[in-house]
UniProtKB/TrEMBL annotation:
It comes from uncultured marine thaumarchaeote KM3_89_C12. InterPro entries: Glyco_trans_2-like, Glycosyltransferase_2, Nucleotide-diphossugar_trans. This is Histidinol-phosphate phosphatase family protein. Transmembrane segments: none annotated. CDD domains: DPM_DPG-synthase_like. PANTHER family: RFBJ PROTEIN, UNDECAPRENYL-PHOSPHATE 4-DEOXY-4-FORMAMIDO-L-ARABINOSE TRANSFERASE-RELATED. Gene3D superfamilies: Spore Coat Polysaccharide Biosynthesis Protein SpsA, Chain A. It comes from the Archaea. It holds the Pfam family Glycos_transf_2. Residues 4-160 form the Glycosyltransferase 2-like domain.
Length: 223
């Protein structure tokens, strides 16, 4: 099966310099950045390293995912974030597992038996585990991590899910719908390193509210 690696970016030049040189372009069939009008040299740095860059026409992570999937020429799409939270060496592991089991989704889990997040605070660690628990309870899942965006998914599966979430609600929505529709999903335990190039933009209170609201909405409107 063929794989496209989609890398959503917005002002990630520091991460691009540190992370992308560790990537082997032979791991996948197609690679490109979907860039949201970066102004810090992200595009130039990625181009120097041999990566194709596509300018995002819309806004937000959800839109970047959709545009990347639409433009991909492969059967599977792998989402990779160059902010330091995703270890490049997991890319071939995700692709290999996807090919072995004909899964709908294969994802890295930070909270499986051998997983760990080096980037979590006490608040985000609690929140990650709590929302994973709630998704499993409400939607009958057995996942250990419902909020991490390091995953590979069948292109057709992604398109069928009709996602409208944004940022972490997007990742949670993928997990919720994978449970709802009984998608064949596999988790690989992994390490999430600390973020490179500044602090995360996530606001815990607002994000918690948005994730809670989404769970209720998806439960009420099950289809």
């Amino acid at each position: 099966m063929t794989t496209t690696v989609v890398i959503p970016t917005k002002n990630e030049s520091i991460g691009i310099k540190e992370v992308l040189p560790k990537v082997d372009l032979n791991w996948a069939d197609e690679w490109f950045l979907v860039d949201n009008h970066s102004t810090d040299g992200t595009i130039e740095e990625a181009t120097k390293l041999g990566f194709k860059v596509i300018q995002q026409t819309g806004k937000g992570l959800s839109n970047a995912y959709r545009e990347g999937v639409e433009l991909s020429h492969s059967e599977n799409v792998l989402f990779f974030h160059p902010d330091g939270n995703c270890k490049p060496e997991y890319i071939p592991k995700l692709i290999k597992k996807m090919d072995e089991g004909d899964y709908d989704i294969v994802q890295i889990s930070r909270f499986g038996k051998n997983g760990i997040s080096e980037d979590d605070t006490m608040i985000t660690a609690f929140g990650n585990r709590m929302f994973t628990f709630l998704v499993n309870v409400f939607f009958g899942g057995k996942l250990t991590d419902t909020l991490f965006g390091f995953k590979i998914i069948k292109k057709q599966t992604f398109q069928n899910l009709r996602l409208d979430g944004e940022f972490l609600t997007l990742e949670q929505q993928v997990s919720i719908k994978s449970c709802k529709y009984h998608l064949k999903t596999f988790e690989i335990d992994g390490i999430e390193p600390k973020r490179i190039g500044g602090e995360a933009k996530m606001k815990p209170l607002y994000t918690g509210y948005a994730l809670s609201k989404q769970i209720i909405k998806e439960f009420i409107f099950w289809g």
